[in-house]
Each structure stands twice: as structure tokens, then as C-alpha cells.
Design goal:
It comes from Kaistia hirudinis. GO terms for molecular function: 3-oxoacyl-[acyl-carrier-protein] synthase activity. This is 3-oxoacyl-[acyl-carrier-protein] synthase II. Pathway: Lipid metabolism; fatty acid biosynthesis. By secondary structure, the protein is an alpha/beta fold. The chain has 2 domains: about 375 residues, Peroxisomal Thiolase, Chain A, domain 1, CATH 3.40.47.10; about 35 residues, no CATH class. Helices cover about 35% and strands about 20% of the residues. The chain is built from 13 helices and 15 strands. The strands form 3 sheets. Strands 1, 2, 5, 6, 7, 8, 9, 10, 11, 14 and 15 form an 11-stranded mixed beta sheet that branches. A two-stranded antiparallel sheet has the order 3-4. A two-stranded antiparallel ribbon has the order 12-13. Helix 2 packs parallel to helix 6, helix 3 packs across helix 4 and helix 7 crosses helix 13. It is globular.
């Protein structure tokens, strides 16, 4: 395989399957209908008590499973649903026999405090520290789930077993850039010739009280609790923080020639990828935006694409005061006068910030934007920020031909990842 090459002589990487779950619904069709209608999935939290918390809203996925499902089990279940849809759409392999590698973005897996308390109480007489006692107790009780889900790689291991992927599954966590990072690893593996196919997934089902409090302590979350659907306001002057959310996105990537040879429908092409790190601060970006600017430029270079070829930007757009301004300044620095003519919108205005899953979910939506010729809006944009003079597709979706999308993902800790996704060549 590999007759078709990119401008650097590497195999072209095609997207042949996609799947998604978010606070808007299960499956691509339901999500896309809600997204283009400008509907928000943010609501009041009912999973745990929120009295005395500054933030009481989130984009939790509570509508699929009849029983309560806690993290990290929820992360696995969401990943499974998204992967099922992606693999089925790709029509690749047979059930339980995916002919390629697995690259998976997962949150830092940990037991929630109710489970920790139960195990700790039961194991209080065991040796070792508290965490060791919990694991010992789980083993003594033959509680395989409690033991395995306390291990970082468990979610990917279980998905690999279920889908029959090849080789050792790769788990990664690069904060809010994780989903895009997983896609990049899949692209690189195909370009190197390590595999003809890759299943890439970003998943996050980790909204629990401890996680919410952690982000509250960073003053990163919106406190617009009285009007949840209006809480996520990317690029607006009155934005006050992001809204935590859950979900999963999955894509099947293939060597373009291998996909065509088996008769697969090509949904899009992974044109360019890049990552740049920022060591300025644990949560803040370098003030001049240089790492983000470098990541965007390197993505364009990796794709061999000119500034005038990009006709939509799926922004990171978290709705935090600093991120939105930094992203806008960085985009203006890269695109110059072209930025005035490029529509830029944030899916997070509707689905919230899905953290580890964000880059993968937003990549799925970017492909749909190309296929459907409809740009999802940035909702809740009623008070424009004069310092961000961008076309943010305010409040209402827009019909427009789109052939090349820049999708941005920037994470706490200085993780900056960009994807350039294009239409199949004519």
C-alpha cells in the first residue's frame, strides 16, 4: 500500500469512521442536529449534592444508562459507544477483530471518593498506606473491577479486548489536548507504516465532586448556575469560565490507499498535525502566545497548506477570560489579514468542555462540518468582546462550503495540539 503520498512523501491518512457521545445525545446524527440547531447540553448536576459549591452545572451524560455509573467505568462505557459507531461506519474488520492499533485519550483514572471510603473502611486493618490497603482489599474480595479500574491503562485495555485491536493499546493524558494527541499518534503510526488502520478515541466520564472542586479552586469554572444553557459563552465579553462536560469521540483512521482498496467511503483526510509545549505556568499560557502560534504554523507546514486554504477554525474556545483572548491573538498573529474572512466557532458553547475527550469530539464535528457544508455556531454570543474582533458565527449555524478545518486543543500544563482536517481530494 501507499501509492498516494502527501507533499512530504508520506502515506495519506483517511478518516473512514466516526462516533460520538456528548451532553447533546448519543450518536453523530443526534449530536449534529442539536449542534446545528444551537442547542445546549448544559444542565444542573443531579449526580451528587452541590450545596455550598460555587458551580452546580455541567454537561454530564446521565441519559444513557439506567443505573448510576461512576468514573472511570463511565469513561469506558462512553468510549465503547463512540467506538462502536465509528467502527460500524467504517465497515472495517469483523466484530471483535479490528485490523489496526488503538490510541486512546483517557482522564487520569482514579476511584471516586465513595468507593475509596468503602474500600478504606473495609481494609483499615491491612498493612501499607491507604491506597495500598484499598487495592489489597479489592484483591481479597476478588473485586476485579475495583482493582483494574484503579490502574491507569484499564480503560484502553478493556476497549482493546472488546474490539480486538492489534498490539499494546496506547493510553495517554495530555490534559485538554488529549483527544487531539491520540489522533496525532494514530496519524503518525500510519505515516510510518506501522499499521494500515488505527482506532483513536478520546473519552471522559469523570465529573465527580472532587474533580469539580479542583477546577473551582483554580477559578476556572463558570458560576452562571441560574441559567445553565447560557453559562458557556466563548469569546463574549461576559464570559466567566468553562463548564465541565463528559463525552467521547472516536475515529477510524486508515492508509488512504488501503481504505480505497477495500471500498471504504472516505469521510475526510488528516492533512496536518502538530504539538508545542508551553512551560510558562501550570494553567496560564505564555502571554505572547508563542507556543500556540508555533503549533498552528507547524500544523500548516505539516499539511503543506497556505493560510488562504483554511476556511473554518474549530476553536478551543473554552469561555475562560484568558484562553479566548490568547487564542484570538494567536490566530490573528498567524493568519494576519486572512483572519477577518475565516469563520471561527466553539462547540464548547453547546457541549461544554469535555476535557480529555474534547479534541476527538471536536475532530468529529469538524469532519461533519466539511461533509454537510454547515458551520455550527458559537451560542450565547450576545455581548461581543471588542478585544476579540473575530467572525465567531454568533448564535446561528451558517451554511458555507468548507474544505479545510483547523481544530485547536490547548490544555492546562502547556499542552497545545492542532489538527488540520480536509475534504477528500477530488
Amino acid at each position: 500500500m501507499g501509492v498516494t503520498r502527501d507533499h512530504l512523501g508520506r502515506p495519506v491518512v483517511a478518516i473512514t469512521g466516526m462516533g460520538v457521545v456528548s451532553s447533546l445525545g448519543q450518536g453523530i446524527d443526534d449530536n449534529w442536529a442539536a449542534l446545528t440547531a444551537g442547542r445546549s447540553g448544559i444542565h444542573r448536576i443531579t449526580r451528587f449534592p452541590t450545596e455550598h459549591l460555587r458551580t452546580t452545572i455541567a454537561g454530564t451524560v446521565d441519559f444513557i444508562f439506567p443505573e448510576e455509573v461512576r468514573s472511570p467505568v463511565l469513561s469506558e462505557r462512553l468510549a465503547h459507544l463512540a467506538a462502536d459507531e465509528a467502527v460500524a461506519q467504517a465497515g472495517i474488520g469483523s466484530p471483535g477483530d479490528f485490523p489496526g492499533m488503538l490510541f486512546m485519550a483517557v482522564p487520569p483514572v482514579e476511584l471516586e471518593w465513595p468507593a475509596r471510603r468503602d474500600l478504606f473502611a473495609a481494609a483499615s486493618s491491612a498493612e501499607g498506606d491507604a491506597y495500598d490497603r484499598m487495592i489489597v482489599r479489592a484483591l481479597q474480595e476478588n473485586d476485579v473491577d475495583a482493582y483494574e479500574f484503579a490502574l491507569y491503562g484499564c480503560v484502553a485495555d478493556r476497549i482493546a479486548d472488546s474490539f480486538g485491536t492489534r498490539g499494546s493499546p496506547v493510553s495517554l493524558s495530555t490534559a485538554c489536548a488529549s483527544g487531539a494527541s491520540a489522533i496525532q499518534l494514530g496519524v503518525e503510526a500510519i505515516r510510518r507504516g506501522d499499521t494500515d488502520a488505527a482506532l483513536v478515541i478520546g473519552t471522559d466520564g469523570s465529573i465527580h465532586i472532587e474533580g469539580l472542586i479542583r477546577f473551582q479552586l483554580l477559578s476556572a469554572l463558570s458560576t452562571n448556575n441560574e441559567d445553565p444553557t447560557a453559562a458557556s459563552r466563548p469569546f463574549s465579553k461576559n464570559r466567566d469560565g468553562f463548564v465541565m462536560a463528559e463525552g467521547a469521540g472516536a475515529l477510524v483512521l486508515e492508509d488512504y490507499d488501503a481504505a480505497r482498496a477495500r471500498g471504504a467511503k472516505i469521510l475526510g483526510i488528516m492533512r496536518g498535525i502538530a504539538e508545542k509545549q508551553d512551560d510558562f505556568h501550570r494553567t496560564r499560557s505564555t502571554p505572547d502566545g508563542s507556543p500556540v502560534i508555533a503549533a498552528i504554523r507547524q500544523t500548516l507546514d505539516d499539511a503543506g497548506a497556505g493560510l488562504d486554504e483554511v476556511n473554518y477554525i474549530n476553536a478551543h474556545g473554552t469561555s475562560t477570560p484568558e484562553n479566548d483572548k490568547m487564542e484570538a491573538l494567536s490566530l490573528a498573529a498567524v493568519f494576519g489579514e486572512h483572519i477577518a474572512g475565516i469563520p471561527i466557532s466553539s462547540n464548547k458553547s453547546m457541549i461544554g468542555h469535555t476535557l480529555t475527550a474534547a479534541g476527538a469530539i471536536e475532530a468529529v464535528f469538524s469532519v461533519k462540518t466539511i461533509l454537510e457544508g454547515v458551520i455550527p455556531p458559537t451560542i450565547n454570543h450576545d455581548v461581543p468582546d471588542p478585544s476579540i474582533p473575530l467572525d465567531v458565527v454568533p448564535n446561528v449555524a451558517r451554511a458555507a462550503p468548507v474544505s479545510l478545518v483547523l481544530s485547536n486543543s490547548f490544555g492546562f500544563g502547556g499542552q497545545n495540539a492542532c489538527l488540520l482536517i480536509g475534504a477528500e481530494p477530488a
